[in-house]
Amino acid sequence: MKNQNSKPKAKEMNSAPYKRSGGLSVGVILLVVTVVSFVLSFALGRYPVSPGDVVRIFASRILPIHRTWSSIEDTVVIQIRLPRILAALLVGASLAIAGASFQGLFRNPLVSPDILGVSSGASVGAAFAILLYQNRIVIQVSAFCFALVAVALTYAMGRTVRGNPTLSLILAGVAIGSLFTAFLSLIKYVADPLNQLPAITYWLMGSLASVSTGDLIYSSIPIISGTAILLLLRWRLNVLAMGEEEAKALGVDTNKLRGIIIVCCSVVTGASVCISGIIGWVGLVIPHIGRMLVGPNHKVLLPVTVLLGASYLLLIDDIVRTIYLVELPIGILTSIIGAPFFVYLLNRGRWGWT
């Protein structure tokens, strides 16, 4: 009788931090916001296109509609804005879910998707390709490969260090990130200041201006695959968030689960960075906004974070391509908005996982 009474009590204690609800209503609202933003984004830009024409252009792909729009409008909507808008949705969603997953995995609200050196590795890969080839496809492939190499080195180093495996990975990520940053500085030092150095600097500031349909085809596969796996495993993140000993006591293979989550987060982040450059603060701030809305339960938090990240980066991209005659790199605006908001979160003290 004593064991029977203690088990429900323990279960209630473990589930207590995850009682906050409202995830369904918040998710529906965010979904509507994302869809509306998706449609309206086609009408924004230096070449204005009315929302009605946008709808008719897409409908003409499947219905016999009389053509009332120009060929220029068709080209702008389908070939220029559609790949960019889809890229903003994919990159924002992937950075947000990677940040939320890493924060739950490491139980640290200061963790971002580049904690294991993904961004530093991708930066070195892109800079190295710009230095030697200056071919867009080569730059993206090199950035993705170097990002995975950096994470592999971080994981290998973290496995060799005794002690807390979570802390070991974070410290290894800091070390590898610093190492790759040094390599990046070396590449920038030897780069041609008239041609190569500006290209490297612009890539590091982040932009979606040059995203094409081909970029989406091969980058969407790892992004969607990694995101889907993280969504399927989201309830297990709740177990890991309770701590190493508690998760093992529940029969969870923490090493295997941690490895899967790290691989998925690294793949989606690397695939995003290779087509957009470095876009900071999305994976750090958006998960905190998600917790403020629905609480820390990853079963609800991760889907909400995906919608938040997608709509947020799409909104930022709409701003950078309409606010000024010369388009601003998107990474600049995300930093300008993200840093003050993060200070606001600090002052609010919204650090708990409950």
Q: What features would you describe in this structure?
A:
The chain is mainly alpha-helical. It has one domain (86-345): ABC transporter involved in vitamin B12 uptake, BtuC, CATH 1.10.3470.10. It contains 15 helices and no strands. The chain has helices spanning 2-15, 23-41, 51-59, 71-106, 118-132, 136-160, 165-190, 196-205, 213-232, 234-241, 244-249, 254-276, 282-294, 298-320, 330-348. Helix 4 packs across helix 13 (282-294). The chain is globular and about 65 Å long. The two termini are 31 Å apart. 43% of the residues are buried. Residues 1-19 and 350-354 have low confidence and may be disordered.
Q: Which helices and strands occur, and which strands form pairs?
A:
Layout: H1 2-15, H2 23-41, H3 51-59, H4 71-106, H5 118-132, H6 136-160, H7 165-190, H8 196-205, H9 213-232, H10 234-241, H11 244-249, H12 254-276, H13 282-294, H14 298-320, H15 330-348
Helix pairs in contact: 2-14, 3-4, 4-9, 4-10, 4-12, 4-13, 4-14, 5-6, 5-7, 5-8, 5-12, 6-7, 6-12, 9-12, 10-14, 13-14
